[in-house]
Amino acid sequence: MASSAAQRIVIENCAIATVDADDTEYASGHVVIAGNRIESVGAGRAPADLENVVRRIDASGHLATPGLVNTHHHFYQWITRGLATDHNLFNWLVALYPTWARIDEQMCYSAAQGSLGMMARGGVTTAMDHHYVHPRGSGDLSGAIIRAASEMGVRFTLARGSMDRSEKDGGLPPDFAVETLEGALAATEETVRKHHDASFDAMTQVAVAPCSPFSVSTELLRQGADLARRLGVRLHTHGSETVEEEKFCHELFGMGPTDYFESTGWLGEDVWMAHCVHMTDSDIAAFARTRTGVAHCPSSNARLAAGIARVPDMLKAGVPVGLGVDGTASNESGELHTELRNALLINRLGPHREAALTARQALRLGTYGGAQVLGRAEQIGSLEPGKLADLVLWKLDTLAHASIADPVTALVFGAAAPVTASFVNGRQIVEDNRLLTVDEDAIARSTREEAQRLARIAAQG
């Protein structure tokens, strides 16, 4: 907890959606930040006699929520947006892997800045990146990505990815863009030991994250799971994204993706998987039984025509579910707050129709659900005393939202709401929809230049 001498920031006169276990809400309330913790949340104004108050914010016309938590992304794809726009997943990968195989450290750094900046401006306070492309001689890609997150000031999980199944093995990536089994495991362990922080208020954590059944060997999955559990970190991968993956697993392993993952040690409360679109009843039951988490990526699933994930059924069964932007080559907006709306709308196209998700369920997916999936529900994901001070003030009194009486409905069903303020660990990183910690215009120039440089290199072969 924050010490009694901690400097305090008082936020008052706003609607509050705490997303706690009881979904407590206040039509007009206050939040007190002390140091890097939430000290109090409640109705009405904050106590007038608080000591060490360095700032008071009149948040009239705003909704305060926990910061959004992104559970799946590929930052490097920021510099390959707008390509292969009419492809399904398999053809999209075939089209883009030759370009992705040419990335280097500076490209990854700039792309991470772009990806992080767009999310942070849109209310993300905890981000993650599943980075699995490590071409030979490309530099310290993990270090570059972590540096970008640290400079931005967001809480961050790097899912250190890997691939060891290349074209010569029947996979999709070029041979020089994959690692050996031994090399992938050694580099992953080095990244965990160098960068992972297991403390309550950690700003950087690392997960073990072989890419997918398409691009990694069974042995990399097995030994990767053993490595993660020996080091005490989480596990992440892609799972059940397409019907092609289902067919691939049956042909190669004689079982579906979920059974295959379970056979390699990849189900458990320390595991979360991206997409999980094509899940049977038994698959969902297995995830629920083992508390395996899911990163739901509605926009990317639609962009690549992968299908509609059975999110209502997962939630009913007790599967932890969070939201993911996914890579910006399959979700060019790169924003998580739009995924609140897209998760709700797309799931209503499924069999549950209008009963699929509510606005409050969508907000929970993007906050507390994401914290569960990343293994950080005790620290973030809801506005409660003692939790870390990661929160967002959404401006809802403008033309876009002012006539919607319920603020949570306005946030989820309405247009993308402006972020007046975003705090991470008690530090403000966004003000009036602009980043405070980095130069947005410089990042825009850098990402454009690196995208052009990558395109030139890829064209040269």
Automatic annotation (TrEMBL):
Matching InterPro entries: Amidohydro-rel (IPR006680), Metal-dep_hydrolase_composite (IPR011059), Metal_Hydrolase (IPR032466), MTA/SAH_deaminase (IPR050287)
Q: Which GO terms describe its molecular function?
A: deaminase activity; hydrolase activity, acting on carbon-nitrogen (but not peptide) bonds, in cyclic amidines; metal ion binding
Occurrences of domain Amidohydrolase-related (ranges): 64-427
Highest taxon above the source species: Bacteria
What keywords would UniProt list here?
Hydrolase, Metal-binding, Zinc
One Pfam annotation reads Amidohydro_1
By what name is this protein known?
8-oxoguanine deaminase
What is the originating organism of this protein? Streptomyces spiralis
